[in-house]
Amino acid sequence: xxxxxxxxxxxxxxxxxxxxxxxxxxxVAPGTVTVVLGANGAGKTTLMDGIAGLAPVTSxxxxxxxxxxxxxxxxxxxxxxxGYVEQARTVFRTLTVEQNLxxxxxxxxxxxxxxxxxxxxxxxxSLQAGHLSGGEQQMLVLGRALISDPKIILIDEMSLGLAxxxxxxxxxxxxxxxxxxxxxLLIEQxxxxxxxxxxxxxxxxxxxxxxxxxxxxxRGDSERLHEFYFGAMPTDAVVEAxxxxx
Length: 246
Ligand SMILES: Nc1ncnc2c1ncn2[C@@H]1O[C@H](COP(=O)(O)OP(=O)(O)OP(=O)(O)O)[C@@H](O)[C@H]1O
Ligand SMILES: [Mg+2]
Description:
4-stranded antiparallel sheet; 10 strands; globular; binds adenosine-5'-triphosphate
């Protein structure tokens, strides 16, 4: 097969009985960050949930390193090398930083590898995670996915509620993951920050891919992005950000 880490072909995904994601084809190349963008309700999380096995894939194929996984339960996808940082995922606040890492590993994972990527966490390894700053907590959330040696990590909006300067640090950390040979599929509300570190981007609208191409092509082009998010609008139309539902 191809050399892609992750490859989706014509994938449709339901929420319960409701079709949400329609015929999505997408690839993530080794050593790259691939960005998924779209308005609120466009189906980004549903797409990730379908890949991870948390929402039913009704048609199409999903391959991880060339092997089909769409029929696997969640734990087998994880064993096959798929890490998932879910939207609004948090740390165990009363456990120490190190305990957070150790309870998250499957098998052999080594906390030192996480500390190499996040020296901030090493300094605080014995601190209760609830005392970390918001940005450090997100680093720990990333570290919890990293410790099990995934081939790819799906990251769903880890920047919620964080200041742009902190988000920038996190984006650098995501880029560093790629340096460790881990591919990333990234959903991010700060589109331009994600497009800075990404190679390719996909934009979803109403569960369908409306743009697929290099990040360079849409970075900084807010007009074009807006059109992808919401469709071409009459000039006098009032658009409320986040108002688009399936
Ligand atoms: N459990 C569910 N049952 C039925 N519909 C759902 C369920 N979860 C989400 N949906 C619907 O699926 C659509 C896509 O939601 P999804 O959460 O995938 O969007 P999103 O792009 O991740 O949005 P956001 O940017 O707000 O996180 C929305 O219309 C939402 O209302
Ligand atoms: Mg979402």
